[in-house]
C-alpha cells in the first residue's frame, strides 16, 4: 500500500523459515528509487534508494577519513580506520539508537550498499592480483621457505591441538567446535598482499627484513591455498556424491584454462598497444574491465566467490609498467577510497560486542591468543637460527602476525555464508585490530633499515688511496641523467694506474606491483623493460669499451617506492664498497635556462641519501654544460674552497682532473680576512689540516698551465657572493663545491635567508639559481662517527693522502705559489 503522508510505509521486515534456519525477509516498494524532490512535500529523501546510498557513502567516507586522520600518526592502517568506523556506526554504539539505525542502516537500506561494496571488493582483489609478481617464486631461498612454512604450519598445528584438548575437557556445541577449527585456520594465514602493503606503509618494503617478509608471506599463501583446495574437495566429497567433487574440479580447471589461455592473451595484446610511459586509452580500459567482470561472474557460476576469479585474472596478467600501473592508477582511488570502505564498514556494523558472552567467548579468545603466540614463536626461532639479529627477528615475527584486507574479507565471507557465527566473527575482527594495531608502531620503533649501513662504514674519495680504483655508484632516474654523468666520469681521467669501477643503478618507482626489486643485471638482462634503461646500459658499456682496462661497469636495477628508495642506494653502496655516489638533482633545465621538470619525489630521495649515506655523495646539477667529447676548447672546471670536510672531499675528487689534457681547472680559495678568529684547538687543528691538503694539491700542480690557483680574502657574505659571481667572468662549464659550510662563519652570515634547496648547502644552493648557467657538482662527505671532531677525522686522511715529501719547504722555493697578502672584498663602508 502506497501512502503520500510524511509517515507512509516504506518497507516491511519479518522473519521466515529459510533453507538453513530462520532468515530476515525485507519487503520494499520497487518504485522507491529517486526522491524527485519529495522533501518539499513533507517526504523523507532517505526513504529512497539513490539518496540513501549517497548519504551512506558520504557518512562512511567522512567518518573513516576522520578516524584515519586521528590514528595515522600512530602508524595505523586505513583498514583499521574503516573497521573502527564500522564498529562505532554499528550495533555496539550508534546502532543502538533506533532512529539512526532505521534511517541509515536498516536491513532494506543496506542491500544496495552491500552490492556496491561487493563490487569494490572484487575489483580490489583484482588490483592485488595485478601487483603480484609470479616470478618471485623463482627467487625463493631456503630461509624464506622455512620461515614462511613455519609461519603457517606452526600456528595451525598448535591451534588444532589446543582445540582438541579443549574439546576433551569441555563439551562444546557442534557449531562452536566448527567455528574454533576455522578460527585456527584463519589465524595461520599471513597474506602476501597484506604483508607487502604493510611494508610499503612503513617504508621498509625494500629493506632486508622487508624482502624476507615478502617471500615468506608468499610461501605462507601457497601453503594456505594448497590446504584450502584439499579441505574444500574433502568437504564437497563428504556432503555430496563423489561425482560432484569430480565435476567441481573439472569446472575449476576449465575456468582456470579459460583465464590463462583465453583472457590473458587478450589483455597482453592490449598491453602491447599501450605506449611506454603513457596511460591506456578508454577503449582498452573498458575491454579489460569487461573481462574482469566476466571472470567474477564465472567464479560465482562454479560456486566460488567473485573476488577469487578476478584475483586469479590479476595474478596471470603482467605486473608493473605499463599495464599494471595503468590499471592500478585508474581503479585504486575509486575502489580503495570509496567502495572498499563500505564493505568493511558494513562488516563493522554487523558486530555486536554484547553478543560475546557465556563459555564460548573466552574459549575463542584463548584459541586466538595461543595461535598468535605460536605464530610469533614459530617465526622467531627459525629467524634466530638463520643468524638474524634479535631486533630484526622480533620485527619479522611482528610483521608476519599482522593482518589486513584479505583476512577481513575472509571473515566477512564466512559470516555471510554461515560458516562461522557472529560471536567468532566479532572476536576475530577485534583481535585483528588489537594485534595489528600494537604491532605496527612496535615495528616502526624497533626496525631502522639504515642501521645496517649508517655509522658502520667509513668510505670516501679522501680515504681512497690515489693508486687504488675509485669505486663510484651512479644513480639514474631517466635517460636525461646519462650524458652529463658519463662526461663527468670521462673528465675524471680513468687510466690503468688509476682505474674507475662504476656501479650503475637504475632507479624505478614501484608501480603496479607489490614486491620491490634490487638485483644485478647480469649478461645485459635488465629487470626493467623500459627502453631508457637499455639505452643507459648501452651508453655506459660504450664508455667502458672506450676506456678498456681502466673502467669496469656493472649494472643494477632498483624498483622501490620513492619513500624508501634510498635504502637500496645505500645498501648497494655498502655491498660494493663505493667511495662516492653520484645522484642527479631533482630539477632539470631547458636550453634557455628555465626549469623544465621538478620532481619532489626525487628530491626526497636525495635528502634521505645525504642524511644516511655510507660514503661520499655528489649531487650533479646538470644545465647541459657538462660535455667534453669533441670540444675544440678546454673544459673549464672551477673549484670553490671555503674549508671543512666537504670541501676537502671536493678537492680530493678534483685531483683526478689534473692529468686530463682536456681539463682546465681553477682553484678558488675563499678565506676570511681575520683567519685567526678562534683560539680553540679543534678549529686551529682543522685549519692546519685544510692548509696541508691545499699545499699537497698545489705541489702536484706546479708548472701545469691548465691549473689556476687564486686566493680571495673576504670580510663578509657580500664579499663571498661577489667572488662567487665573478666565476662567470672567467668562463665556467662546471663548478665543484662542498655541501656544508659553517653558517655562523662571518663570510656566510645571512646567506641562509635565501636558501631554497638546503640539500645543496649554502653555496650550492646559490649556484643552482638562474643567475648562473654552468653545471654544479655539490660534494658531501660521509659524516664522521659521532664523538669525533672534524680535526680527528681529517688528520689521518691528510697523512694518508700525502707522501713522505714535506711540502712546506717546497712552497717557499716557488714564489708563484706563496701565500698572498689579504685583499678583502666587501661592499660595506
UniProtKB/TrEMBL annotation:
Membrane-spanning intervals of the chain: 45-71, 78-97, 117-137, 144-167, 179-200, 212-239, 245-271, 283-302, 363-386, 393-412, 424-443
Location(s) in or outside the cell: Membrane
Domain Cation/H(+) antiporter central: 499-625
InterPro entries named in the record: Cation/H_exchanger_TM, CHX17_2nd, CHX17_C, CPA2_transporter, Na+/solute_symporter_sf
Topology in membrane: Multi-pass membrane protein
Domain spans labelled Cation/H(+) antiporter C-terminal: 637-781
Main location: membrane
Cation/H+ exchanger transmembrane domain ranges (all copies): 62-439
Keyword vocabulary terms for this entry: Ion transport, Membrane, Potassium, Potassium transport, Transmembrane, Transmembrane helix, Transport
Family: Belongs to the monovalent cation:proton antiporter 2 (CPA2) transporter (TC 2.A.37) family. CHX (TC 2.A.37.4) subfamily.
Protein name, as recorded: Cation/H+ exchanger domain-containing protein
